[in-house]
Structure formats: C-alpha cells, structure tokens
Design goal:
alpha+beta, 43% strand, 25% helix, Alpha-Beta Plaits
Length: 95
C-alpha cells in the first residue's frame, strides 16, 4: 500500500513559494502544493530571537519521494537552513 506524506516548508516571500511549488509539481514530486500566508514565524537564529512573515507550503506526496523532495527544496530554497518537515498521512478521503 502506498504511504502518503505532507511535507512543510516556509519561504520569505510569495515569489519563492510559487517557484518551489511549481518545480515540485513539474518534477512530479508533489501531487499538490498549497500556499498559506503570510504567516508569522518566531524562531532563534544565530543567538537572537527573530520574528518574520513567511509563506507556508503544504506539499502532498508519497513517502518514497521524500528524499527527492528534500533534495529539491534544498536546491531551490534561498535559506541557508530551510525548515523541511514531513508527517505521515494516517487517514484521508480514499479518492
């Protein structure tokens, strides 16, 4: 049985989010990418607490494609250390 995942990453602007989403779908690494934003992120970076507006990408895919998704995000993402989180989809509409 195919295992499905949702991968999440954030970008600093809509342009980068659109570019990454388009590439993931074009490369057939994602069935769908939804963009939400801007969202406010608070995090520690280089010893300081930072707050910034970002765009959240929700990437729908298959677990077996995760290594390629991770590689593509790292290749396309402008951040030094992009957030890349994958969670299993344990239930959902069968169609």
């Amino acid at each position: 049985m195919t295992a499905f995942i949702q991968v999440m990453t954030t970008t600093a602007n809509r342009h980068d989010a659109d570019r990454i989403a388009g590439e993931l779908v074009e490369r057939r690494l994602a069935a769908c990418v939804q963009l939400l934003g801007p969202v406010t992120s608070t995090y520690r970076w280089k010893g300081a607490i930072e707050t910034s507006d970002e765009w959240l990408l929700l990437i729908k895919s298959r677990e077996e494609l995760y290594p390629a998704i991770d590689g593509a995000i790292r290749e396309l993402h402008p951040y030094d250390v992009p957030e890349i989180l994958a969670v299993p989809v344990t239930a959902g509409h069968a169609d």
